[in-house]
Structure formats: C-alpha cells, structure tokens
Amino acid sequence: MASQGKESTFCMGDDIPLAVLSSKPHMLFDYFKQRFAQVTNPAIDPLREGLVMSLEVHLGKRGNILEAGPENASQVNLSSPVLNEGDLESLLKDPLLKPQVLPTFFNVGKGVYGSLEKSLYKLCEAADEAVRNGSQLLVLSDRADDLEATRPAIPMLLAVGAVHQHLIQNGLRVAASIVVDTAQCFSTHQFACLIGYGASAICPYLALETCRQWRLSNKTVNLMRNGKMPTVTIEQAQKNFCKAIKSGLLKILSKMGISLLSSYCGAQIFEIYGLGKDVVDIAFCGSKSSIGGLTLDELARETLSFWIKAFSEDTAKRLENYGFIQFRPGGEYHGNNPEMSKLLHKAVRQKSESAYSIYQQYLANRPVNVIRDLLELKSNRSPIPVGRVEPASSIVKRFCTGGMSLGAISRETHEAIAIAMNRIGGKSNSGEGGEDPIRWKPLTDVVDGYSSTLPHLRGLQNGDTATSAIKQVASGRFGVTPTFLANADQLEIKIAQGAKPGEGGQLPGKKVSAYIAGLRKSKPGVPLISPPPHHDIYSIEDLAQLIYDLHQVNPKAKVSVKLVAEAGIGTVASGVAKGNADIIQISGHDGGTGASPVSSIKHAGGPWELGLTETHQTLIENGLRERVVLRVDGGFKSGFDVVMAAAMGADEYGFGSVAMIATGCVMARICHTNNCPVGVASQREELRARFPGVPGDLVNFFLYVAEEVRGMLAQLGYEKLDDIVGRRELLRPRGISVMKTQHIDLSYILSDVDIPKWSSTMIRNQEVHGNGPVLDEVLLSDPQLSDAIENEKVVNKTIQIYNTDRAVCGRFAGVIAKKYGDAGFAGQLNLTFTGSAGQSFGCFLTPGMNIRLVGEANDYVGKGMAGGELVVTPVENTGFCPEEATIVGNTCLYGATGGQMFVRGKAGERFAVRNSLAQAVVEGTGDHCCEYMTGGCVVVLGKVGRNVAAGMTGGLAYILDEDDTLIPKVNKEIVKIQRVLAPVGQTLLKSLIEAHVEKTGSSKGFAVLKDWDKYLPLFWQLVPPSEEDTPEACTEYGQVSFQPAFEGETKRT
C-alpha cells in the first residue's frame, strides 16, 4: 500500500477459522463481514464509473433538512474520511466545531470482570455531556504519552459503536460528528467498519508512522537503491497508503451499490459472526449476529491478550506473525495446509484406502475450523450394513466442481478436472471464458494414456470427454456464444463469488494468450475486464429475463444461479426460484479465487452453513423448495462435509480448492502471480509442462468421498442420501469447547423445519422449467422454416410481434448452433417482424440469420449475438424524426461476439457494453456507450451520454460530434481520442454508414454521405492501446489535411 498505492492482492480464499473459533487473538474488526448486493441494487464499478461516487464528508451539526437556512451549511467539508496528523490538528483548532477529545481506555487494575462495560458507559456519558455543552466534534482517541499494562485501549470499533448508539438513543446524534484518532486501524475493512458504525473520519496515526518507519528502514532503502521497488519519498509513502485506503473504501461501497460515503456512514451494513447479545446491544444494535459469541468480559480478555504483549521484551524485538493470510508453522490453522495436501496426494496417487483413512483422521482431529465442526451427527436408528446403502456411483453424480476459469487455472488443470467429472457422472464447471469446441467430442485416439487431440494430458482413456457439463454465464460474457450455450447440460449465472462477492475482475493482458483470446473472442495481450454486475440484471425481474433467455436458447439445459451466503439470502433465493431457475447454488465465504483483494477474501460473505439453512427454510416456508435443486460449496474436503450439507438441506455438493489439490496443487498460494510451481494456476508454458495431475487422481478422490458418505449413512441407519436431506434432527451440538467463549448459539442451524414434500432425487430429476408457449416454437413448426434450417436453404418470412414476445429468435439460434456451430450454417433465414418487440429481441443470433424489425424494441436487443444481421427501423410516417427518437432500449449488444446491427434511431444506456466483435451503427445513445468493449466497431451518428468508452480495451468507436460536446463525455482512462485520419479507418466508417443507409433508409446517414467532406472532420475516433497500430487507426497508413488528433484535453468533472 505504501509503495504502490494499491491494496494487496492474494488468492485461494479464506481457509482460516472464523475469529470466534480461532485459538489466536483477533481484532474486533475480524468478527464483522461486509454486506454486498446480490441481484437487486447492483454493484457499481468504482474504477470505470467513478463519476457517480464520492468520499466527501461533512463534519459538524446537521440541521433540519426541511428548514433551509445558512446554519445548515455551517459544516467542515472533507474530500475523504482519511486524515493525517496535520488534518486532525487543524480540526482540533476549529472554534466552530468546539472539538472534544475523549480518551478510550479501560482499567483492569481491579480485574477484567465488568471493567470494559463500566468504561464504555463512562465514555458514553462523557460524549453526551460534551455534545450538550455545544461540542460538534467528538474525537475518540487511543493516543497517550504513557501507556500502562493495566489500561488497555478499548477496541475502537466498540467505542465508536457505543457512542454512536448512545447519542442516537438520547436524540443527540445529528448535533455532532465522530472522528477517530487510533492506532487500531490500518486496512480498508477496518476503515469501513468504523465508518459503517458512525465515524465520519479517521486518523490512523500508527499506520502513518509505520509508513514512515518502513520508508526509512535499511531493507526498503536497499530495495529502492537496487531498482527492485519503486522509489518513493516519505511523504509519497503516506499518500500512497491513503490512496489505497480510499480506493478500497470505494470498492466496499460499490459492492452494496452505494455511491456516496455519506450513505454508508452509520448504515451498519455488516453481519456479525461471534459476538454475544450484550456486545451487540451496547454498540451494534440492529446488526445481525446469528450465532452469538463473546460477551463483553470475554472481549475484554481478548483485547488484553493483545495489549500485554506490547510490554513484553520478546515483542520489542519482533512482532508476532499470526499467519492469518499465508500459512506458516505455528501460526493460525489453515484448512488447506501442506500436511493436508500431502496426505491427499498420497491417497489419490497410490489409490490407497488406508492412506485416505489417514487423511480422514487428520480432518477429524483438526482444530475447530468451520461452524460444522461444532456439530455431530446422531441417529435414533440402528446401523445397517454398508452393502444396503446406495452405491458410490450414484452418490458421485451429486458432486460438482467449482467455476474456475481457463485463465485463472491452466488448460491442463481445467481439462483434467472436466474429464474426471465426466467419468464419474458428476459435473465440472467451465468458469468464465468460454470453452474450446474440441472438448465436446469423446476421445477416440488414445494410445497408452495419450491423445493427439489433447496432447498435453496424461492418463486418458478412449471415450473421455473434456467438456464442462456446467457452462458459466458471468458478467463479462466472455466466450458466451450460441454454440457454447447450446452444448451445455446446465447453464450457471454467476451473480457472486464466495472469495470476492460484489466485485468484477480483470484478466491481465499478459495472461491473454492466443488460445485464451480465441476462446474469449478477443485479441491476444488485450486486458479483459469483467464488470462487477451483470448489466442486464438490475432487479429480480431482470434476472428472470436472463433465465428466460437461457431457457430459450437451450431448452434442455437447467439454469442455475450462484449466490453467496449472507443474511437475507433466503429472500433473494425465493425470488430466484420464482424467476424460474432450476438450481440455486449457495457459496460460502471460504471459496477459492485466482486473485482478489485481501479485504474481499477475508471480510466479505458468510459461512455456507448459515446461508444454506436460511435458503432451505425460506424456500420451504414459501412452498418453493420442490421447484429448485439446492447446491452448496465452499471449503468441502470430505464425506463428512457432504453429509452435514445434506442434513442442512442441500441436494448437490461442490468441491473447488480440494479438487485442484487432488490434481496436483501444492498450495503455494501464488496463483495471482502466474508463477504456480506445478502449472496448476499458470499460463506460462514452462510451468504448465510440470503439471503432475491425471484425471484418475480426481476420480479416486471422489470415489473415496462417496465411500465415506456410504459409511456414514450406514452408521446413521439410512440407505440413501435422499433419506437425510433436510433432516435437521440428525444434527447435534458437539461436546467441544472453543477457547474464546462458551456462548456460541447454534439454535438457528438446529431449528426444526419441515422437509421437502418430494425426495431429493425427484427434485433433481424433474424436467427443465420451460418458458411455456413462445413465438419461436410456432415459427419452428412452420415447414418452410424447419426445412430451411435442416437443409440450409434460403427462406423469407414476415411475422407480427408484440411486446410480450421475449427473446425472439433465441430458440432459432440455439437450434442452428447445436446443429452447425457458430459459423457453419450455409442457409439464410430472412425474417421481418412488425410491431413492438419484447426484451432480448434477436438474442444469440448466428450467421445466416438476417432479422429485421419494423417498429421498436425493449432492452437487450442483440444480446450475445454471434453473427447474422439485425436491423431495427421505425414504421413509416411516424410523425417524429427517427434520429431523435429512442427505438431500442438499454444494454443492446451485451457480450456480442459477431454480426452487424443497424438501428435507425437512438439506443438507451450501455449500448455495446462488453461487445467483442460485432459491428453496429446507431443514431444516438445514452450513458456508458461502448463500456468494456474488447473488439468490434461502433458508429454513432448522433449524441451520446456520459462516460463513453469506460473500460474499453479493444475495438473502435466512431462518434459524430456536430456540436463539439463529446470530449468531456469520454472516459479517457484507456482510450485515445483522435480524428479519423487513416484512410482504412475512413473507408471502414463510410462503408458502415453506407450499409446503414441501405438497410434502414436512414435520412441522417444519407445526409452524412451526401456531404461527406463536411461531416468526416466532425467524427472522433476512440482508440484503445490495442488498436493504435492497426490500419484503421494508425496515421502512418495515409494522411488527410484536416484537424489533427485531439491531444492534451484536461479531465473535466
């Protein structure tokens, strides 16, 4: 943070115990998890859409907003809540604010019992008195000249929360602001907690002092001198730290879809795991704490255990590293540790049942690591012989692997996992980024375990297939083509990921090889950005529409929706079930990731045990449980986890990190660096050559897990998994003590709830939830159209359409893609629709589909189109000027990978968002045009909204700027803005406008062509770095005589 101004990145998820379960002391902040938006209130991209976000803070008394007056403006405005010592000193001298410094210490000289509670009450009374005496600024401070072993600092989050709640209860909160001066705050999560529970600004004096000491240390000086670290001054190091904190705060706000820090301050958008009722009532009233936990006295003891170490001679020499992030001997326990990895490797590679038993025993004897470790299984039935239990071959069909993208992990790992899952009848997940069609056919050329089709893999068998049964549709829509969708057994909509919920991602250009670029329909070396939200999901109704679209293109594939456990997930899951999803997946916070900010890995998302419990209960209460399969994942390692999840209500079970370990991962935890030593999570050829795994290893693992499940079912007296799904009565608290508290409350998980009316197998085997009667099915039953598809003929049809007809042409596209692939259809369907089209008109078009709409269309026109032609034009004699009217809705061409689109009129917001290769001409757009584009070409013959080309890393845009208003609207973070100088670029622009006029009869396009020499100089060309050397953008290919490229425009806000 101090050296680069960035929050640190890590990988592999959070596999240490919750703070309340840990044997190591934790700061109070670690008991809190950040909330995040799922489906509704979509996340914001703080990097590309920063124009809507602000960290501005106002200090001082707030008056009645309904009574205008100059006194309401009598406040101190800060640009951010991060203060340095000089800022704090200035505030302390402000006569208007009348600041009052309140020390935050408690005295344990007479014993720990009751000491923290007494000090909190005294602090609150002092705050109350100060505000009543006219102070508008309370400064809570743990700074002191002389520190005493018997006077520890109150956890600052507890102090802030207590004062905040006390002032609210006494009607004084708006009369003063709270500022914190603390040594206890140094990470983005800690800042967010303090602000979320009432602080307006924070001065992290010890963190700033650490920056100064770090910069002056011999080690840092030598690294900078040797060029191994950027050279920064002491002042710059402190500024970098503050910059990293501010960026992190914006990201935390954006996860909840919140734009302004003022909306986050005091909003308490956190969940608590491990604090008891007395702590919550005094400082965090209103926050959800599902499992109880530490009392005030127990919290005081944990605080004291930290404090007294400061007075030890050992600590004076070196601070203890608890190993909370990276595993270290003697540090915090990690679920995925070297010993566990070695035991598992030995069991699966040697195919040794005794070795797997040792692995089982190791897991059984581990320290309490997750909530389910506090539970055990008890049955009132007598054990039965294992031979009566359903076979392992049946159980493994319930197993899935995590959605790991080809890019985050290597091709070798990805394909080995898929082959193993297909052998056992389970399901692997493609992750984001598409899939190579070569993987969809069974291997027939295997000799001695090797195949020329997949020469980089070992241990193959004839009949193996490397296809992923579950194909993921993520926010970036990379590689989501009609053929990809049509070849799926299941389609997963990834709303969130356990290790980084509410965030998007970015695959760096150096990881985008030619192979990966081909799969993702991009260019090699071009960074690929996935937005935080799906831009076609801003509500539960929007999610229902995407589910409808996917059912339309592949009516045989079940659609799953992946959510992350948090309080309130039951309500979201009910909406998902009503939205016609077939499967709901609940991911725990301890899922893995290839790369994520540390604060997201550690401090967002909840345990799947609670998320699954809430989802199962809520669905049953609403009569929806039988409609959906419940799948759960997050830290699964054994048959014990499977049986626990089944008893809590899950039908299917996902394994992520452990599947990678079984195929060779050694838990080096450097996935985010591209330097994986065994080639599991690297794209470097020399490292991938070291990949040790074979599909058989993972097959062995899952068969061992299934046998373990069989053994447990036999002991419980049940013959099949169906019999225990949702049977909470099998769960009992385990007689085990947790070091920090005896007050953990598991009653929520153990509460009685009805079981589903259908068996788990019936729920899993039910038919796909269809879309009902749709226009596409009527058209496909037309003999002419079906003959044209079957025999690749040309056909022309005119059809009336209404706005209740949604995702029209999607079913056509799926049928053609399944039979011919994305580019193999040689026929031609020339379909003209008249009327008003519903949402997702022309979605997932393939080459050979020429679709024309005379009328208007709703949102998502041309979503995911891979080819063909889509023309939208208004009816004749409309009575309005077509180029001034909006005739297609928002988010058109989202994730398009090919084809052409011509619109005579304007489009709504986010036109061509995440466009890969499509070409389009439109006569005006709303905000965020061309956002996240990675290829293709967009021509706009009219005005655009704000934030044009944000996150645009590929492709070209040509925008007509007749009134000289475009420049301030362009997001210049990535793209360069220049006139259309290159002859090839001019030719491309003119040819697209000519095609537009020909297809739509556009009067605007006709006027531009008629007076070409006048209009050409009015076009701007937006060029990302990846396109600068192309003939269309590079001026070296020819020169023209008018206005040079735009240079040096300063940023405007």
From TrEMBL:
| Keyword annotations | 3Fe-4S, Amino-acid biosynthesis, Flavoprotein, FMN, Glutamate biosynthesis, Glutamine amidotransferase, Iron, Iron-sulfur, Metal-binding, Oxidoreductase
UniProt GO BP? glutamate biosynthetic process
Q: Which residue intervals define the domain Glutamate synthase in the entry?
A: 335-718
Q: Which co-factor is required?
A: [3Fe-4S] cluster; FMN
Q: Where is the Glutamate synthase alpha subunit C-terminal domain?
A: 800-981
Q: Which GO terms describe its cellular component?
A: chloroplast stroma
Q: Name one Pfam family in it.
A: Glu_synthase
Record InterPro entries? Aldolase_TIM, Glu_synth_asu_C, Glu_synth_asu_C_sf, Glu_synth_centr_N, Glu_synthdom, Glutamate_Synthase
The places in or outside the cell where this protein is found are: Plastid, Chloroplast stroma
In terms of Gene3D superfamilies, this protein maps to: Aldolase class I, Glutamate synthase, alpha subunit, C-terminal domain
Q: Name one GO molecular function term.
A: glutamate synthase (ferredoxin) activity
The Glutamate synthase central-N domain is annotated at 1-275
Quick one: which pathway?
Answer: Amino-acid biosynthesis; L-glutamate biosynthesis via GLT pathway; L-glutamate from 2-oxoglutarate and L-glutamine (ferredoxin route): step 1/1; Nitrogen metabolism; Energy metabolism; nitrogen metabolism
Name the source's superkingdom. Eukaryota
Report the EC number(s), separated by commas if there are several.
1.4.7.1
- Cross-referenced NCBIfam families, in alphabetical order? PRK11750.1
Q: What is this protein called?
A: glutamate synthase (ferredoxin)
Species of the source: Cuscuta campestris
State the organism's lineage. Answer: Eukaryota, Viridiplantae, Streptophyta, Embryophyta, Tracheophyta
